[in-house]
Each structure stands twice: as structure tokens, then as C-alpha cells.
Amino acid sequence: MQTQHVKEYLKELITCTQCGYCKEVCPIFEDIGWDSASARGKVALAYGLYMGDIEPDESVLERLLQCTTCEDCKRRCPSKTEVVKAIEAIRKDLNEAGFSLDVHKKIYDNIMKYNNPYAETSSRSEILGEEPKMAEIAYFVGCTAIYRNKEIVDAGISILKKLGVDYTILNEVCCGSVLQRTGFDDEALKKLIDANIDAIEQSGAKKVLFSCAGCLRMFRKEYKKFRDFNFEPLHFTEWLVDQEFSLKPYPKKVTYHDPCHLGRHIGVYSAPRKLITRIPEIQFQEMEYKEDQAKCCGGGGGVRSAYPELSQAIAENRVKQAEFAEVLLNTCPFCLNTLKFGNEKLNQNIEIIDLLQLIDQLIEK
């Protein structure tokens, strides 16, 4: 097995002191309990593969794929080891050596054939009944929202219309996040990046709004590694918090879940909270674990598709932490679906919705 990709992160592998602080926060370790499931365990496995001391058998592949890429390990690590980058690199090496899961291969094939991981054949324009046009504000709706949570896209568009904003949707394709998280090749990713940047540049947009944390993270952290662009990628809440509008009262007890890719990965914490606290009569209470210490929903890094029971258990734990609230808000469709998945076993009497949906319900025309 060749390990050319993880070799670039050899410093990360040898910087890890195996102190075990990551075990306190790793959502995978919390559920599985084996040291190999923790961040330090994965670093040891990656180093073993690099040195040729272990073989990439099924058990090693399983452990290295059981990471949601939440980055809470990096926050807790005294050495600030880039565990997630090293894990994504060794996943690339495993894929190139022919060690990957059929479910992840299927997602890759779907994206290459249909431009989305769900093998949906309808375009964004066909679903929304709108065509891309020239505008200074563009809305990058993302695959999960348009194909699985259209209510989020509808809310975003409704808000833009209520505020009288001249906007456009885009001839977008998958952002590529799932490919990068599961270790597929950069050539495939580059095709998606070029297609999306071209679509945005053709629209003339100066600002691009995202309701998906994973998509936004790709634009902010990954896209410029491959190609420069001149537009500003913003989470919808970052743009919305600076707009003028009035909201109806909402006298309910509400809490908020920070998506890992929006929070720890790119540092967007204040905008959603500013919007929530602008709502009259709302009873907003933070969960015990919030902002950079927020617990993962369990959906990222290919875990939800490959290990659904594990993903559900992690999501169940997160929903339990919101048991005091009537409404659990979040700002990512993938988190939304995973939290709902976790609540299927709990059956907790809590409404789980995207913040854009609530703002759209309350905004006064």
C-alpha cells in the first residue's frame, strides 16, 4: 500500500503524544469505547500503515472511516494536532489502494454521473421553477437541502423575496464535501469546483449565500486551494443578521445546535445567535456544550451513510442535551436530518427545524 498522501502529514502523526485528551470529546469513542476509535487511536493506525507495520484489513478500514471530522479532537489536543487532515489523507491512500466501502463508492459514482450524491435527475431550476440570471446575490442551495429538505430552500427564497432582494439560484453541482471527507481523488473534486465557480462568476454575484454548513466550509477552506475567486461566500445567517426586518413574537423555549463545519471549522457562532435573540418573547437557552465545545450530531465524514447505527447513537446523545427545550434550531440540513434520526429512538417531544424556517415563519412582510 502506497501512503503518499498521509506522508504529507507525517508531522501530525509524530506530534501526537498519545496523551488521550481527545478521548474526552470524541463522539465515536464515546459510543464504541475502544481506544482505536479515538483520535489518538486513528493516528496510531495511520502511522502504522505509513510505516508498513500493519495491513489495511477490514478492521483498520472501519476505524479510519469512523470519524465524523468534527474536529473536537483538535480543539482539545494540547499539541493542536491536525487529526482530521491526517485521517482524510490516509483515507485517500486507502481508496487508491482499493480499500473503500461500496456505499462510499456509490456516492462517488452518483456525484460523477448526476452531480449529486442522491442520484436525483431533476435540476435545481426544474424543482424551484426558476432559472439562473444575473444578480449580485446568489443562493447556493446545496444537494441535501434541494433534494431532501426543500423546506429549507423554500424558506431561504421566501426570505429573499420578502426583503425585496434581487437574487439568483445557480447552475450548481455538488460542492464536493462528501468526496473530500471520504478520501476520493482531487481530480474529481476539481471538476466540481470549476463547475461551481464558473456558475457563480457567470451570474455576476458578489455575495453567495449558503444554508448548508458543509458547502460553505468547502468554499471557505478548500476551494481557494484549487482556484481563486472574487465573490464572498456567506452563511445565510451571516448575511441576514445585517438586514432590516421585523419579527413576530415566538414565546417558546428554544435552543441551538452548532454544526461542526460551521462552528469549529470556520468559526461562525455569533450570527445565528444574534438572529435568535432578535425574536420577540423567545426563551433562548444554550445547551451545556455550545460553540467551539458543541457536540457533533454524528452525521459527517461519511459516518451516516456507512455506519447508520453509530450515527444515530451520537445524534441521540446530542438531542438528549436539548431535552429542556421545545424547539431545537440548527443551521445545516445534514445536521437537521441526523438530529431527527437520533430522535426517532428517543421520541422526545421537541421540534427540530432549521433557523431559516423559523425566521421565514416569523418575518413580517
Explain this structure.
Helix 18 crosses helix 19. It is built from 20 helices and eight strands. The mean pLDDT is 97. The chain is of the alpha/beta class. Helix 16 links the parallel strand 5 and strand 6. The protein has three domains: 4-100, Fumarate Reductase Iron-sulfur Protein, Chain B, domain 2 (Orthogonal Bundle), CATH 1.10.1060.10; 105-240, Rossmann fold; 253-362, Rossmann fold (3-Layer(aba) Sandwich), CATH 3.40.50. The strands form two sheets. Strands 2-1-3-4 form a four-stranded parallel sheet, with helices on both faces. Strands 6-5-7-8 form a four-stranded parallel sheet, sandwiched between helices. 49% of the residues lie in helices and 8% in strands.
Supply the CATH class of the largest domain: Alpha Beta
Number of domains: 3
What is the oligomer described by this structure? single chain
Average residue-wise pLDDT: 97
**Shape category:** globular
Tell me the span between the first and last alpha carbons. 60 Å
Number of strands: 8
Secondary-structure element pattern, one letter each:
HHHHHHHHHEHHEHHEHEHEHEHHEHEH
Fraction in beta strands: 5-15%
